[in-house]
Amino acid sequence: MAILAPSILSADLSNLSQQIRMAEIGGADWIHCDIMDGHFVPNLTFGPILVKAARTSTKLPLDVHLMIENPDKYIGDFSKAGADTITVHQEAVVHLDRTLHMIKELGVKAGVAINPSTPVSTLEEVAEIADLILVMSVNPGFGGQRFIQNSLKKVREAAQLRKRSGAKFLIEIDGGIDNKTAEPALEAGCDVFVTGTAVFKSDNISASCAELKNIIK
Ligand code: DX5
Ligand code: ZN
Question: Measured from the CB, is residue 197 less than 6 Å from ligand 1?
Fold first, then answer.
């Protein structure tokens, strides 16, 4: 069963608990938290304090996506805040092997994300260490962007890498996922589907989650 991970980037943060509850009712499996620093990506969002607030609002796993420079510096803080998975960007890290081990040593699942312009082949040497590979299907920084079709090819390549290497990582897709793009992403081999705008900007958060869950089941 695929995993639905609504992103609180598009939620009404003045009602965070209630918004997460609506997503839970609709069948959300994880809650995705988009951390942006204004350097690695042009936008600024939130830090460990908000992740902690999400932690007190739900028992669902928190999937923390760090779109920040020098993530090593903050991994401990996000772990303490309650992250279950911490994903760093391949492009933001010099010693990726070390960073992924650092995350795992905290008892947190370690993910690595790649931008649309970064090939899957750059992850070949960490395939067995990573718990999750996140294929960005938009250029990171903002919700509500259009899905980049080339990402489907990259998801298939990630699935081939997993098969070839005997690795066990989950394949996550993030950006522009809605009731049209979820199905081809599922067919390409995705396990985890991040969705922001399509659920939190809809008229009915629970119904939109349920609709997506039905597509990816
Ligand atoms: C983009 C973020 C995504 C974003 C997805 O930089 O990583 O998680 O919130 O939002 P939608 O579903 O609106 O593309
Ligand atoms: Zn994200």
Answer: yes
Q: Which of 43, 138, 216 to mutate to test the pocket of ligand 1 (most atoms within 8 A of CB)?
A: 138
CB of 182 closer than 6 angstroms to any ligand 1 atom: no
Centroid of ligand 2 to alpha carbon of 166 (angstroms): 26
Phi-psi region at 82: left, alpha or beta (left = phi > 0; alpha = psi -120 to 50)? left
Given a cut of 90, is residue 179 above it in pLDDT? yes
How many angstroms separate the alpha carbon of residue 87 from the centre of ligand 2?
Answer: 9
Alpha carbon dihedral 71, 181, 25, 110, in 10-degree steps, equals: -20
Six token digits for residue 210:
């349920």
The string of pLDDT tens digits covering residues 153-163 is 999 999 999 99
pLDDT at 202 over 90: yes
Is the entire prediction scored with pTM above 0.90?
yes
> Which listed CATH number (3.90.400.10, 3.90.550.10, 2.30.30.240, 3.20.20.70) goes with 11-216?
3.20.20.70
Q: Which ligand is nearest to the CA of 65?
A: 2
